[in-house]
Fold:
Amino acid sequence: MAQWLVKSEPDAFSWQQQVENGVEPWTGVRNAQAAKFLRAMAVGERAFFYHSNIGKEIVGVVEVARAAYPDPTEDTGPKGIQRWACVDMRAVGPMPRPVTLATIKATPGLEEIGLIRQSRLSVMPVSDAHWAMLCEMGGWPGR
DNA sequence: GCCAACGTTGGC
DNA sequence: GCCAACGTTGGC
Structure:
């Protein structure tokens, strides 16, 4: 079971909207590395939902409701070539205490997390150890 | 195949 | 609003 972190600008798509919609397609990823991670996701795996730009904090936990399929928001061009994938995410619950980027940066043991090392990547794996630490920091009760 | 120019993301 | 990081594009 892998864990993940996905980013969204709340202006474009927020945690609030994720909760209201329940299950939501995670579309619009146009980066090869991020797309590779999307394709590696299995149903039931969980991800931290991170607000970039505004908030800059982990606000909730989602889980994969449907594994990778062709991104319907992609313009496939005249030849109809599909390059990008998306998954469906389901809201599991909010972080009791959202974990901010500043806190993550200041926490020993989290220096190597992808969120910091590759700040522009919008989908990334989270190690078991980092997942456990962040759950603890955020007061997340479950797995 | 190299590399400069340019665009985008995201933190500050 | 600025800038660093970095991916993409296009000329050669």
The first strand of chain A starts at residue 3 and ends at 8. Residues 128-138 of chain A form the longest helix (11 residues). Residues 31-32, 118-120 of chain A lie near DNA strand C (CB under 10 Å from a C1'). The mean pLDDT of chain A is 94.
